[in-house]
Amino acid sequence: MPFSVKNISDVAYDERRAFIFRTLNEVFKDFEPNKVTEKAVNEIDLNKYAGVYVIGFGKAAYEMYLGVREHVKRKLKYAGIIIPSDQEVQYLPELDILRGTHPLTSTLSVTSSKKLLSKARPSANDLVLVLISGGGSSLFEIPQEGITIDQMASISRAMMDHSANIYELNTIRSALSSVKGGKLARILYPATIIALIISDVPGDDISIIASGPLAENKLDPSAVYAKYRDIIPIDITKYVENSSIEDLYFRNVMNRIILSNRDFVFEIYKRINEPIVSFGSNIQGDVTEVSEAFVRSIYEISKIKGKSFWFVAGGETTVNVKGNGIGGRNLELALRFMKLANFSDFLFLSIGTDGIDGVSPAAGGIVSSDMKLKISSQELEETLDRNDAFTLLSAYHGAIMTGRTGNNVSDIMVGYVSLR
Ligand SMILES: O=C(O)[C@H](O)CO
């Protein structure tokens, strides 16, 4: 499932746009999850273990499994992954391909998680390879006793719609879960556990990626709860108490991040062989504030540089959804950037590396100065009020359609600006 833009002739209608899509293609190719996972697993000496279990969950779990398949073959006792219900993959005889739902968890995710754990029963001499990628929070879930999966889903929905960031959201998810925030380590104890992780979280915190199945959350759930009390309809105190895990269970656990947003940002930075500025991988915050910050900083930098330049960034924004249009944070960021940008010549692209942006069928959006001339400010404002960026951008060569990419390191933004 490699990265490819299905409507490339629609969105890449001039040389600068074509160049940026060519660059993205190359970077996605270099960082295909099967390649990075294969490299990491080849460093693990399996002779030390009686047998190997592979379990995985997340949007990149299938591709990650392809990377370990050859290396673990001769020692494999069980392999099972949980992936999104609509992800198309090929049948592999030895692999249990289980399904879950994303971004909201459901009984399907619970049934699959129980099945996965009923098969993964390692002994002390075994190795469990855990393939973790974003999406894992909702795909792999068994709530603590007393909480229903529907309650978990509706709390997540409410927090997302109130612009909770991923640290806040996953702190609450961990507290309510019986498999997150390190609790999986207790379940798999005393086997050796090596987690290979593709991070889609700004700051790459292993207790936040997929809600940290093998790492204890260090944030204070009570503080997050206090902030969102009005929209969390249950008292989480007793679940927080059940969430603390003894150090003993982490003794044989190694969490290793093998790919993250910063790899993508750095690689794009290196490949654009023209003046370029990197804003790093830590872009976070409400999409309105982030678009303002981008435009303001770019304006300041261009005053210093005095010439055209590219810029690249990564991270994850949030949208305070009020309308019921078709949109996503990347499409909306692109549109808001276009609204504010008064540069004589600009291009701006923002995509989710998993290929899915919010409730839209697009991966994200691309906007440019020529496009801005064709769209009235009234149309733009009304679209933003409805959170309907996909509808507008798809009418103006601005919706990037890739389908699922099989990768997931959160969002990437790339742009070009000239003041002259
Ligand atoms: O699954 C999740 O929690 C998010 O994708 C962050 O990893």
UniProtKB/TrEMBL annotation:
GO terms for cellular component: cytoplasm. InterPro entries: GK-like_C_sf (IPR037035), GK_N_sf (IPR038614), Gly_kinase (IPR054996), MOFRL (IPR007835), MOFRL_assoc_dom (IPR025286), MOFRL_protein (IPR039760). Pfam families: DUF4147, MOFRL. Transmembrane segments: none annotated. Residues 29-222 form the MOFRL-associated domain. Residues 311-411 form the MOFRL domain. NCBIfam families: gly_kin_Thpl. It comes from the Archaea. Keywords: Kinase, Transferase. One of its GO terms (molecular function) is glycerate kinase activity. It comes from Thermoplasma volcanium (strain ATCC 51530 / DSM 4299 / JCM 9571 / NBRC 15438 / GSS1). This is Glycerate kinase.
